Structures are given as C-alpha cells and as structure tokens.
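Before a computer can learn anything about folding, someone has to put a protein's shape into writing. The outcome of that step, for a single protein, is printed below:
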Amino acid sequence: MPTSGFALGVDFGTSNTVAVLRSPDGRARSLLVDGSPLLPSAVYADPGGNLLVGRDAIHSARLDPARFEPNPKRRIDDHSVLLGDRELPVVDLIAAVLIRVAEEARRTTGGAPLDPVTMTCPAGWGPTRRGTLCAAAALAGWPRVRLVEEPVAAATYFTNVLGRQVPVGSVIVVHDFGAGTFDVSVVAKAAQGFDVLAVDGRDDIGGLDIDAAIVTYLGRQFGSTPEWQRLSAPTTVEDRRNRRLLWDDVRAAKERLSRSQSADIPIAQLGTDAHLTREELETLARPVLEQTVRVTEGALRWAKLAEGRLAGVFLVGGASRTPLVATLLHRALGEPPLAIEQPELVVAEGSLYATSIAGTRRANTVLFERVAAAPVSAPPPGAPTSGGPLPVSVPPVPSPTSGAPARPISTPPAQQVSSPPARPVSPPPPPPVRSIPPQAVRVPPAPTLTAARPQPRPPAVQPRPAATYRPRPNVFLRSLRLAIIVATLIAVPVVTAYLAFHFAEGTPAWPLNLTW
C-alpha cells in the first residue's frame, strides 16, 4: 500500500528494542542497528558522562558493571537510576536508546522525514508511564508520536501481515512473553481495527526468570567450589564481569535449546562446560510457564467469551520460542497457538498497520505531540553514530511523585489528542500491584488518554451483618452455675468409687436400714 513518506514503528522492549521502517512504496523492513534487527535496550554511563547503548553498553559493562543498566523499561517507575557514581533520570536512559534508533533511521532514509513515528506500550500502562515514554521520544527528536497498545499491534499483524481471517466479534489471545515481563490480552475484532476486552500480566515473570532457574540449577552442581561462590556473590570488578558472562552464556544456551535437544554452557572460571538438555530446561521452566498459563486462563474467564468466539492464540515476545510455551497453552485452551520465526518483530511492524487502520479515532491509538514544536527529522546534536557515546544534556534533578518526566526539558511535552481537545489527565494511579486480577477495558465514544487504560476489576465486598444487641450477663448467676458444674464433676466420681468398693466387699452401701 503506497504512502506519502517513510513511517517508523518502534517497540521499546525490556531487553531489546525493535524498529520497522515502512518505505513510501508500502514495503516494511526491519531497521538494522549494528547489523541486527534487535538493539539491546541496555545503557552504560561511562566515566566521561556519556551514555553508551546497545552492544557497546554490553561490552563496556564488562569493565564496570556498576555503570550498566540492562533493562531501562523495568525502571520506568523510578525517577532516577544510579549508574556508577551518578544518578541519571530514567527518561534519559530511554531517550538514549531511542536516539540510537533515530540515528540509524536517518542514515537509512537519507535524512527523509518520518511521518508517522509509532511507538508501542503495554495496554496496562497509565498516563504516567506513557508520558515518560513520550518525553523520551521528544528528546530523541520525535515531537509527534502515536502510541499503539502492544496487543492491538500484535493482533493487527496477525490479520494484515499473516493474512489470518478473523470475523468481526471474534477474539484473539495475544500471549506476549518477553524477557522481563509477561502480558496477555484478549482483543476483539471490530468493524475498524481491534478493541481490547481484557488484559492481565505479571511484571516479575519473563525469560530472565528461566535464565535464573538455569543458574540456580548450575549452582546445585558447582555451588561448593570457591569459584562459583565468587560468581554468586561477586565482590570485585572481575567477579561481576565473569558473572555477566555466565548469564550471557546461559541465555545463549536457552535459545539454542529451542532448536536443538542439548547445549553446553561454558564456565571458564571452573574450566568446564555444563551440559543441559531440553528436557532439563523444560523441567526448570515449567513453574514459570505454568504461571503464564494460569494468568491467560484468568483473562479468558474475565472476558466471558461465548462459545466459538476464540479465533486464535498468537505467541509474541522472544521468550515464547521455548517449545513448552505452545505445548502448555494448547493443552489448557484447546487451541493450537501460532508461533512465528521472529516473534520479536511482530509488535513493531503491526503498529504501523494499526496506525493506518485506526488512526486517532480509536481509543487504543493515541497521538502525543509537543505544543509549538517544529517537526524534527534528525536527532539533536551529539547523537551517537554507530553506537557512539551520547552526552547527557543536563545534571539530574529530582522530580516530584506526580508522574512528570524525570527531569525538566526545554519544552515540556504536552499530551494531546487530535480530536476532541484533550481533557485534563487524571491523577496518576498508585504503583501497579504484581499478580493483579484481570483488568477490563472500556472503549468510550471519544478517544482520550485515560480511555485506553484498562480499569481494574472492583473487588467483591461482602456486606457486614447488622449488629445485634445482647444484654450483659448476670455475674451471680454465672458464678452459681459454675459452682454447680464443679460440684457435679467432683461428686460423680466419688459416689461411683464408693458404690464400687461396697459392691466388691459384699457390704451394704447404705449405713441405714431403710427396710421396715
């Protein structure tokens, strides 16, 4: 489908950031950064005050892991992050990753403007988190971005790119199992685009937890050695570097086991390799994956689907490559999940089609723009080239707890919806509670910022019974009653023993002759 210019879809993930570029002729292709479609979302603050991103950050982390943040998305609720001896606003860390994407997009397109730029976010994110993401996009040189909810983007990919037919009213379950988080959404096909019916997830479950289970398994084999103890509790820069190398090798072995039956994990400090089979991996991963299945079943129960409405189950996220994911879901839902070769690219590419279909008329596709901001097609001065350093603009400043961006910028981003005019954003909600019950999503007639956020299910409150009046008991009567009970308990065994004695001796039990 030809378009008027280049369009960019960006999926800022926990472990990796993915971008898809759509050319004017309508063809979409992955944006390669350092030769790979996956840009690690990692950030490293060097001693000179520069921020390195991606693979440069990972390599530099081996020198000083204390200056390294591997998952900035997990820190989005924090106002600042301590890297080395400096506290940096989390919005700067996110912006550093996006600037690297913007620089590569500008190089690929020859400096042509990007319109639109689409970014994705979890369906459960509220105004505070979305505002932080848009503030980072503005620092990257994207004053106008469209936010598309991740399950909507995935469902659009399911129909538009894969060509799956989904009748209006039928639903798709989007099972997004990433490195650090898990989200499941029930999305319904509408006359135009998709609507989110229910969303649930866990912020503390992801592929990293499977990595941790493997490391724990290795610890049971080598935990008694001093070398492993230094890996478990590093105290020096070299120990921390070796620990990160171990976790990288564990993750690589886990990914190989998605394609083969066994893999070796090198442990250089011990001078040996640990052998791991797929069967052992599935045993270690099963407790984590079974939690995702239970959350998925709960979301479907909350959606209250009629018989025959489920049109498919779509696996998204790099951690969903584990074959056991599809096996457990098929067994629980009775619907074979659809898995593709590169599930990390789904959300970024699907967001482009979701934008073209839904535009800004849908509640789950919202436009954010900076007021009085001229279009910027290139990143600001000082942007990294080929993974080069990014200077931090200003020293970090503590930000209020109201959810504003972590540091002031020259032109604060104003969250605005194209039509009708934006209403005041409601106060930010309290931090999300992990392992929350499924959330329902209501789609109002007019798109607003708060309309796209699922509302939590109200807890069931049992009414208290009405209080009844009881007169105070009489103390004398209670004492008398107690005395009678005690006397009875004493008298019964005494009389019984007395009668038994006389019966055994053959003597009369009563001293008086009562016969006439």
